[in-house]
Amino acid sequence: MDESTLRRQVLEALQGIAPEVEPATLRGDRPLRDEVDLDSMDWLRFLGALHQRLGVDIPEADYQKLTTLDALIAYLRQRIPA
């Protein structure tokens, strides 16, 4: 999956949890949870939606690596099943 497709999938999953999010305004280098104001439950729902869409398991130990949109996309790109 190329990066633009992956980014689109991530943003669609995010909008499913937080429909008020404007993808064009998101910066890839800023803390994602703060930028879109996701609480803990919304964050878990978002990660669950990514798992369903992309088939990627995200262990709780890796949550700290997923701070920005860019970091999340890089993480997912490495783990998407072939």
Automatic annotation (TrEMBL):
Domain Carrier: 1-80
Taxonomy, superkingdom: Bacteria
Coiled coil: none
InterPro entries in alphabetical order: ACP-like_sf, PP-bd_ACP
Name this protein carries in UniProt: Acyl carrier protein
